[in-house]
Amino acid sequence: MRWLALGLCVLTLLMWLPALTTPWWGDDYFFLQIAHKARLNHEPWWQAFWPEVRTGFWRPLSIDLYWRIIEDEFCTTPLIAHAVNFLLWLLASVSVGLTAHLFARQLKWSSPWVIGALTAGIYGVNDVHFLPLHWASTANSSILVLWTALCFCCWIAAPSCTTKWRWVLCALIPLLQLLALFSKESSILIPLLLLCFSVFLMDTIKLGRQEIIAWLSCTLVCGIWYCFFKHFTGSRDQAYSLVIGTNILRNLFALSAWLLNIPREALRMIMTGEILWGCIWAAAAAMPMLGFIVLSLLPLRKKLSPQKILAIVAFILLAYAPYFFLASQSYEYYAAVAIIFPLIILARGLSISTRPFIAIGLLCLSTFVSIHISRLVDYPSLIGRAHWAEKQFSYLTSQPIELPLVVQVNNAHQFYAISVPGLAWRLGIKESDVVLSDTCPANTRKHLVQNAQGDFQWQDCR
Q1: In what order do the strands lie in the sheet with 446-450?
Q2: Tell me: the pLDDT tens digits for 271-290?
Q3: Secondary structure class of 66 (helix, strand, coil)
């Protein structure tokens, strides 16, 4: 079983290595420009925690400081940025594995280190990491998981420690809560997730005064943070608005898809009319994953009481709760925290299964189908759009540029991968020198037009 866990971890690393070659795209250029301006204006790093203007998201750790480091220290190279994301993903996976190890020790399961390694491998290979590893702008997901999982570690380990270390671990919990809040808003639910672990472990460990104080401190931190969050944030894009309607059912279906390793691109194909191929792709990813789940749960069929099952289900629904109400956006990485607890249980079942190699083989097959095809699909897939944008930049950087640069966009969804900040960044011009227009302004000889195939070409103004 140890060799199986080690082999899974190595295979997971190899499976994600191609993500390092992804170019900049989309919001990457927007954040690069902001970080670049902050550096030129000599803005102090702490200003991200107390911004002078309202923003759509207040994430000083996972957005502002992250991009200041990428832009300032690593020469804005996409390979380096993806390597940083790779490291963050690795740290997040290891922290989840450590959570599983401590969880197994508290329950006195055999081979807790093996269960921890299996959990780290199963978690790391999951499709929820597709965007965080292929898009620098979604690094906040891995950063959130890192702080959240470490918070889980302290909560689980504290009750069995000596008084001194119990106080130390409990003191770290609200600090980790704050770091998570500075990374992503959904971490406001961490106190409830801690209770889900406690319900599962209530027959083994008892919460003491230290844990109660730590939990109350977490809720207080969340309350204070929320007041500042409302002060520093303004209106968001309509796609991120919270509504109550059929979107709840749609997002519940999306959560089910993420749990079964179904890629977002397969769901997109189904929604945009390519129903047959989308269903085939979704089934090819879901069926092996379902087989892995069944084989892992079979040894536990008599070991999980209704109380424990309820704790797991509650954890999943609570961790995903903020996303049930989203108007339109839905991505796999939204479930990055929600899958932690169930994967620990699956790793436990796998560790005592009589068919562990078959189960791991099915898991890897599911992930390979999800990830590899997502990399190959052309636009409108996300990575297809990223490579399309890079092709446009390769063409434009070899062309003489006249200012102002007039651009006629016929596909806004596709153009998002380039964006005005992207044109300014890659061509070395100011954003104000880029003009989006369907007509040529006076004294302009030519403009950049998106043709029927979606590519950009020069046209003379008439």
Answers
A1: 434-436, 405-408, 446-450, 456-460
A2: 888 899 999 999 999 999 99
A3: helix
